[in-house]
Amino acid sequence: MSDRRRWLVLADEYLTTRNAKTAHGVIRYSPDDIAAVLDREHAGASLGAVLPELGRDAPIVASVPEALTHAPTALLLGVATPGGWLPGHWRAWMAEAIEAGLEIANGLHTFLNDDDELVALAEHHGVRLWDVRDPPEDIPLFTGKVLDAPQRVVLTVGTDAAVGKMTASLELAAAARAAGRNAEFVATGQTGILIAGRGIAVDRVVSDFVSGAAEKLVLECDPGSDVAIVEGQGGLWHPAFAGVTLGLLHGCAPEALVLCHQAGRTAIEEPPYTALPPLPAMVTAYEDMTAAVRPARVGCVAVNCSGLDPEAAKRSVAEVEDATGLPAGDVLSGDAPKLWAAVEAALPAR
Fold first, then answer.
1. Domain end point (choices 78, 102, 131)
2. How high is the pLDDT of residue 233?
3. What is this structure's pTM?
4. How far is the C-alpha of 267 from the C-alpha of 242, rounded, in Å?
5. What confidence category does residue 308 fall into, taking pLDDT thresholds of 50, 70 and 90?
6. What Å distances lie between residue 286 and 105, 256, 258, 294, CA to CA?
């Protein structure tokens, strides 16, 4: 198998929903090829017709045998099912894929390598089962060595979970490269790892070691890179995810922050629906928290304007700029270069 995969993306019954966030991210950003998408609901259509905003095209098929005619090399479980369960028909599809020699990439909290039947089948056919969320065993406690890393470290942080931190990180890395920087995207979640080919899913790391995992990722960046843009997770005001947010904030010791915000959101999206403070207060809180290890300014606000028409998006960005006094923009509307310039301006002199 070559280093470049040809993904068969499994998104059955979820392709156009938020549950398929992993599929959407890989389709939009992976340097690998998309051979086909497995989704019975839209079978026979093209990906470009169903989800044109992803900017990629591929056939949508209804079965693994049909997909195999498009020569995939790996099957991606591209959906976050409620509770991380594996639907029964997925197991049948995985068995067909394994028997055809396809690698299986799994971003769910349920690990394929804990399934004796699938492991035996994979071993018989010489196929890798890649549980993307399974962290390495050699994660150390935080040491402070990251403070001497040669890269300039930038971290995306959120007013809530699921506000576009990975997207902002990837788009800012691309903008930084276009501006002459050798920027590296540092993945801390399953979708980012599938795109980058490396990383640690910090939501599976034992709590005391989250900051060590973040530090390890920065220290393992390509020596030739001069900027590390670290993908943030969660948000300080989300009771379920604030711990991992703080671990990343301290562990990667950023020199600049990018606040990511969903336009119009005033409370976290999930129970207990915690009310969000005003944006200026959140900027201050993030700067105060990161100062425990190294001071860093919020350089800009990446506003997720998905679902808004262009005029409403423009108003939302202007409102964020007025409220915070910071440059703001939507990275998917062409504002990443503007935001990267603001990040450059926020980086302290060395």
1. 131
2. 98
3. 0.96
4. 14
5. very high
6. 34, 11, 10, 12
